[in-house]
Amino acid sequence: MTEPADPEVVLAELARLPIGEALGRDHLARLARIGRLEHHAPGACLFRKSDPNPELRLVLSGRVSLCLETPGHE
């Protein structure tokens, strides 16, 4: 589920992340203007290797697993 992005809300969420301090407020504000918040159910596929134009995704809470399927291997 994607929410309309209120830049101030996105900025506040980004500032909570460890990367927030490293990037600084100006860079975070730029990301906040173009970012959006998404909520996903457990087990949801967020993207596939074949998807065009992968996006930068920052995990605010929860965990992400990456799986690479190789033909002939599980």
Characterize the structure shown.
The protein is mainly alpha-helical. It has one domain. It contains 3 helices and 2 strands; from the N terminus they run E-H-H-H-E. The chain has helices at 7-16, 18-23, 25-34, and strands at 2-3, 37-38. A two-stranded antiparallel ribbon has the order 1-2. The mean pLDDT is 83.
List keywords for this structure.
74 residues, 2 strands, two-stranded antiparallel ribbon, mainly alpha
In short:
The chain is mainly α and 74 residues long. Helix content is 35%, strand content 5%.
- What's the total count of β strands? 2
Mean pLDDT: 83
Kindly estimate the percentage of residues that lie in beta strands according to DSSP: 5-15%
Proportion in helices: 25-40%
Tell me the count of domains. Answer: 1
Helix-strand topology string: EHHHE
Please give the order of strands in the largest beta sheet: 1-2
Let me know the largest β-sheet: 2 strands, antiparallel
Indicate the overall shape.
elongated
Number of helices: 3
The class by helix and strand makeup works out as mainly alpha
Q: C-alpha Rg, in Å? A: 15 Å
Which residue ranges are poorly predicted, with pLDDT under 50 across at least 5 consecutive positions?
Answer: none
Q: Give the termini distance in whole angstroms.
A: 30 Å
Question: What's the SSE blueprint?
Answer:
Layout (H helix, E strand, L loop, with lengths): L1 E2 L3 H10 L1 H6 L1 H10 L2 E2 L36
Antiparallel strand pairs: 1-2
